């Protein structure tokens, strides 16, 4: 029997998904969570084989939860509407076993769960294509700068946090705008988030 925990903040979808998987031979939904923090607690308590995780949830999102569960034997499957290369990249680095889109047929999810419990990794082909064609062009330091910009920090605050001069921050911003092919900071932050590269500060 494959024991499953589902994490999804939309109650109707959570209930429907649970009911669908309970109908599958050899599968049992043992827990349901409405945010990433609840999901982590259930996984650690119930020791399921699989945790199906949405990304954008309150309290703790699915990617943060997947990172927290990295050492757990439970296999994490991301099930989301967001085909964003940044999300996919973070999910892979968090060691998830699957990344599927919600518009996939329900029978594909059941098949993926069975394959994943047998040791395979299943990633939506659209995401794999995006990961190769839309990689983040920014260096680690440039990512730190735009991350702080997206958190609402100004040039002075960024310079203090990263221990660099305000002039250096402005130089980084100029390079970021050029690499992201935008004309101002607001557009840069929007593009950074749109691609799924922004990570909410904890």
UniProtKB/TrEMBL annotation:
<keyword id="KW-0902">Two-component regulatory system</keyword>
<dbReference type="Pfam" id="PF00072">
    <property type="entry name" value="Response_reg"/>
</dbReference>
<keyword id="KW-0238">DNA-binding</keyword>
<dbReference type="GO" id="GO:0003677">
    <property type="term" value="F:DNA binding"/>
</dbReference>
<dbReference type="InterPro" id="IPR039420">
    <property type="entry name" value="WalR-like"/>
</dbReference>
<dbReference type="GO" id="GO:0006355">
    <property type="term" value="P:regulation of DNA-templated transcription"/>
</dbReference>
<protein>
    <submittedName>
        <fullName>DNA-binding response regulator</fullName>
    </submittedName>
</protein>
<feature type="domain" description="Response regulatory">
    <location>
        <begin position="3"/>
        <end position="117"/>
    </location>
</feature>
<feature type="domain" description="HTH luxR-type">
    <location>
        <begin position="131"/>
        <end position="196"/>
    </location>
</feature>
<dbReference type="GO" id="GO:0000160">
    <property type="term" value="P:phosphorelay signal transduction system"/>
</dbReference>
<dbReference type="GO" id="GO:0005737">
    <property type="term" value="C:cytoplasm"/>
</dbReference>
<feature type="modified residue" description="4-aspartylphosphate">
    <location>
        <position position="54"/>
    </location>
</feature>
<dbReference type="InterPro" id="IPR016032">
    <property type="entry name" value="Sig_transdc_resp-reg_C-effctor"/>
</dbReference>
<keyword id="KW-0804">Transcription</keyword>
<keyword id="KW-0597">Phosphoprotein</keyword>
<dbReference type="InterPro" id="IPR001789">
    <property type="entry name" value="Sig_transdc_resp-reg_receiver"/>
</dbReference>
<dbReference type="InterPro" id="IPR000792">
    <property type="entry name" value="Tscrpt_reg_LuxR_C"/>
</dbReference>
<dbReference type="Pfam" id="PF00196">
    <property type="entry name" value="GerE"/>
</dbReference>
<keyword id="KW-0805">Transcription regulation</keyword>
<dbReference type="InterPro" id="IPR036388">
    <property type="entry name" value="WH-like_DNA-bd_sf"/>
</dbReference>
<dbReference type="InterPro" id="IPR011006">
    <property type="entry name" value="CheY-like_superfamily"/>
</dbReference>
């Amino acid at each position: 029997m494959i024991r499953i925990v589902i994490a999804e903040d939309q109650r109707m979808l959570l209930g429907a998904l649970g009911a669908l998987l309970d109908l599958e031979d050899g599968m049992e939904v043992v827990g349901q969570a409405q945010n990433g923090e609840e999901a982590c607690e259930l996984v650690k308590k119930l020791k399921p084989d699989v945790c199906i995780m949405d990304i954008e949830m309150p309290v703790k999102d699915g990617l943060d939860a997947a990172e927290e569960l990295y050492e757990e034997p439970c296999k994490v499957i991301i099930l989301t509407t967001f085909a964003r290369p940044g999300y996919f990249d973070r999910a892979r680095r968090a060691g998830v076993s699957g990344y599927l889109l919600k518009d996939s047929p329900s029978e594909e999810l059941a098949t993926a769960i069975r394959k994943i419990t047998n040791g395979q990794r299943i990633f939506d082909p659209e995401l794999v294509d995006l990961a190769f064609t839309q990689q983040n062009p920014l260096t680690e330091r440039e990512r730190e700068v735009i991350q702080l910009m997206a958190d609402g920090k100004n040039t002075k605050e960024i310079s203090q946090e990263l221990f660099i001069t305000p002039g250096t921050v402005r130089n980084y911003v100029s390079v970021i705008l050029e690499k992201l092919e935008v004309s101002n900071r607001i557009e840069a932050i929007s593009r950074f988030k749109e691609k799924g590269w922004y990570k909410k500060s904890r």
